[in-house]
């Protein structure tokens, strides 16, 4: 039973570039949430996808966008990268039918913006 | 918007000592969850509390949900070096987004 898988694990970009992060949810889960975790901080909610639609969105600019595919996997895209976007990006999956809020996290993608 | 606050920010204990972290929400919660993140790792779900005044135990860990469903605590008895990490509480807001606290980082001296 595979857990949540994320790729890539680490990446380095420069300001102004764009990045795409990928996530495959745990088997049996249909909902994907993305979180940003800055060093020493708690995870901050970016958005949540269910049935290929964005269902919830946190306080993040439109530079952050996402997508969910029919197989429940998801992508997070960030455009026009800023230095402040450097963080650990966590994907978490859950099952919508159980309230979708007990989360299984992936190992994360650590983004460094230079 | 809803805020979830945790204290203390850091706790450094001698192995064998007890540890407690406290979580307070600005709003009443339908449930509260606790997660543990080891250094360099990702958050791992520990437990969910739903009922007012609920107390649950997992071996040396005791979790409590306040009567008003606005606060919670995690108590670890006789800490071990394997308890090292950051403990987060999290609760759903009015639109069911899970909001995390800032965490309490536990360091254990062997």
List keywords for this structure.
heterodimer; A: 114 residues; mainly beta; four-stranded antiparallel beta sheet; B: 110 residues; six-stranded mixed beta sheet; five-stranded antiparallel beta sheet; 55% strand
Entry summary:
The complex is a heterodimer of chains A (114) and B (110). Chain A is an all-beta fold.
Fold and architecture overview:
- The complex is a heterodimer of chains A (114) and B (110).
- Chain A has 114 residues and is mostly beta strands.
- Chain A has strands spanning 5-7, 10-13, 19-24, 31-37, 44-50, 53-57, 64-68, 74-78, 87-94, 104-105, 109-113.
- In chain A, strands 2, 4, 5, 6, 9, 10 and 11 form a seven-stranded mixed β-sheet that branches.
- Chain B has no helices and eleven strands.
- Chain B is globular.
- Chain A binds chain B through residues 33, 35, 41-45, 48, 56, 58-59, 90, 92, 99-108, and chain B through 1, 31, 33, 35, 41-45, 48, 88, 92, 95-103.
């Amino acid at each position: 039973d595979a857990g949540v898988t994320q790729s890539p694990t680490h990446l380095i970009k420069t300001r102004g570039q764009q990045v795409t992060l990928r996530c495959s949810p745990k088997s049996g889960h249909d909902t994907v949430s993305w979180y940003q975790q800055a060093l020493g901080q708690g995870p901050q909610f970016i958005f949540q996808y269910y049935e290929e639609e964005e269902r919830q969105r946190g306080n993040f600019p439109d530079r952050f966008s996402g997508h969910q595919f029919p197989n429940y996997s998801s992508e997070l895209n960030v455009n026009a990268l800023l230095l402040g976007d450097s963080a650990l990006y966590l994907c978490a999956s859950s099952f919508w039918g159980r309230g979708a809020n007990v989360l299984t996290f992936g190992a994360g993608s650590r983004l460094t913006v230079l | 918007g809803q805020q979830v606050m945790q204290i203390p920010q850091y706790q450094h204990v001698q192995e064998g000592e007890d540890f407690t972290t406290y979580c307070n929400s600005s709003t009443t919660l339908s449930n509260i969850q606790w997660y543990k993140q080891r250094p360099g790792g990702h958050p791992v779900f520990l437990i969910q509390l739903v009922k007012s005044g609920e107390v649950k135990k997992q071996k040396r860990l005791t979790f409590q949900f306040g009567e008003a469903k606005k606060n919670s605590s995690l108590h670890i008895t006789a800490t071990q070096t394997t308890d090292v990490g950051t403990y987060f509480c999290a609760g759903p807001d009015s639109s069911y987004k899970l909001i995390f606290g800032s965490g309490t980082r536990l360091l254990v001296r062997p």
